[in-house]
Amino acid sequence: MPKIYRSLTILFAIWLLVWLWLSWPAMQDDAFIHLRYAVNLLQHHMISYDGVHPDYGTSSLLYVWLLAGLRTFFTPPVLPRAVSSFFHVVLFGGLVIAFARTLRSAPRIALAFALLLLALLAAPMAVRWLDDGMETSLTLCLVSLLAFSISRLGHSERVSNRSVLWLFALGLIATLTRVEYLLMLGVASLTLFLTRLSLPVEEAAKRSSSACLRLAARCAAPLLGSVLAAAIIYFTMHSVVPDTAVAKAGGSGAWFATLVVVLMVLASSMSIGALLVLFWLLTVAAVIAYKRRISLPILVANSLFAITVTLAALRGQQMQGVRYLIWTLLFPVLWNTLELRWSVSVPARSTARLLRFATYGLAGLFIVLLPIESMMLYKEFRARSLSLAEFRAQHLERLSSMKVVAFDIGYIGYFSGSPLCDMAGLVNGRARALLPFHERVKLCAAEDPQYAFVSGSNLGELNNSLNLKGWSICSVYDLANLRASDLHYLIASPAATAEVCAAAGHAPEPLEPVLHPSPAP
Fold first, then answer.
1. Taking CA 401 as the corner, what is the angle to CA 398 and CA 404, rounded to the nearest 5 degrees?
2. What pLDDT is attached to residue 320?
3. Dihedral (Cα; 422, 426, 428, 430), 10-degree rounding
4. Torsion angle (degrees, nearest 10) of CA 455, 461, 462, 463
5. How far apart are CA 375 and CA 510, in angstroms?
6. Where are the chain's structural domains?
7. Is residue 121 a contact partner of residue 91, using CB atoms and an 8 Å limit?
8. 292 and 347 in contact (C-beta within 8 Å)?
9. DSSP secondary-structure letter at 494?
10. How far is the C-alpha of 398 from the C-alpha of 406, rounded, in Å?
11. Paired residues of 488 in beta bridges
12. Closest residue by Cα to residue 81 from 65, 63, 60
């Protein structure tokens, strides 16, 4: 590898470690949902949020199992953050080594793509989404392994029995991590089959239907492993689709809103969102230019993003973060970059110059975005770290026998251990998940909660169903996002105010000024 590769990867690694330190311990609210599931799995030996009723309110069964295993040895609440950061470092380091080994004889532009991808994965925005205590970094490690395996086996002399078992196991593990990876494993299997079918070594498969079927069966190993994982999920949880996905689906009429949200998510995620989309399109253009044709394997391997967004739009699925889209971009980016190794032709000089300029332009855009997102994310990390410190300093476990209603349930559910009614419908069973939001709020109000944890935007909705007159504020937390502060209020009914505020360690304040703010003069 050239010296520039070693020098830049060392620089990116240092940059990544700096941001891991600056962002510690800023955790996503949903990470504590996984952690509470893990605790209940250890204590009650079932997937359950309340420890009493089984439910499918977690988006990643494998991640819950992993946290439960680690929880036996490590009890700090920042465990999910440590796990996600560990896999982020593994992802980055693994790609550094894998690129150094696989791109030695590839065109120079492939090395440029590798460096650009490593830069994106070391950026502050990558730390924001891969180190937030969720399973994203773990799943991207699996996506990377799949992309490298499919690219290598697509051009090897044969697909051995050992490779078939490896692909099967990879498909099984990936789908247990995120069930929507069933789509990716199908795309990967078809890409491998079409790539091998174009090789001279598979002439027998082209001439004989039986040989073609045998080849298809071997190439379908990732999909078969994924199907087995889906069956395990179904027989374990009585559904393939988790309650979280059901609760976040707005129906076929919400397709336009989904597309708008996807655009907003990509734009707000900057280097790991909109820039990653542009980078993916650049790698598509490069592999077509070097192959000098648009082949079926290229079309299939690069179809994940379009298929995922289309399916989400048809379901009206809410995309509450770029984590739901990164995998659809990382797989084709890696496959396109690795496919350049097998190019036997060279693009026209004008095309090569255009690709080179586009790569420089993308790198320049990244350099421009870097200080902007760094300043914005530093503020977010600081706010989230302070909120977590506040939760850890309080004694909300004293409220474990009191009923709470909440919308963002991660922090409050984990630190209090209270029986919880979730206005978002994630953890109270499939029946609640299927209800519209306002119906869930009415049902939560009917359960006569003693305290609540809600954002300013949800206070009004809760007040419409549960008269909050006389309620008090016991604590305020800033679960900041990139755009602004996101204040959440721990509020208590008149009868529970003394106990809740004592647990929070603050004197009660009236809720009325927040609920009905005075008009500006």
1. 95
2. 80
3. 140
4. 110
5. 34
6. 394-515
7. yes
8. yes
9. T
10. 17
11. 455, 477
12. 63
DSSP, collapsed to helix, strand or coil, labels residue 118 as: helix
The amino acid sitting at 65 is W
Report CA-CA distances (Å) from 275 to 15, 306, 314, 366, 420: 19, 16, 25, 7, 39
For the segment(s) 394-515, the CATH number from 2.40.50, 3.40.190, 3.30.160, 2.40.230 is 3.40.190
The mean pLDDT of the chain is 92
DSSP state letters, 316-373: TB---STHHHHHHHHHHHHHHHHHGGG--S---HHHHHHHHHHHHHHHHHHHHHHHHH
pLDDT for res 457? 83
Q: Is the pTM of this model over 0.85?
A: yes
Candidates 30, 17, 9; CA nearest to 100 is 9
Distance CA 81, CA 32 (A): 10
**Are 211 and 262 within 8 A, CB to CB?**
no
3-state DSSP assignment of residue 491:
strand
CA distances from 167 to 37, 102, 194, 309, 518 (A): 29, 19, 16, 26, 62
Look up residue 101 and give its two tokens.
């080994």
**How much is the average pLDDT of 246-260?**
80
Round to whole Å and give the CA distance between 105 and 1.
10
Place of tokens 């980016």: 333
Residue holding tokens 């470092």?
Answer: 89
Which residues fall within 8 angstroms of residue 437, CB to CB, at 6 or more apart? 423, 424, 425, 461
Q: Percentage of residues in the chain with pLDDT exceeding 90?
A: 78
Half-sphere exposure of 294 (CA within 13 A, CB side): 5
The single-letter code of the amino acid at 155 is: H
Distance in angstroms (rounded) separating the CA atoms of residues 498 and 450: 11
- The reported pLDDT for the residue numbered 514 is 86
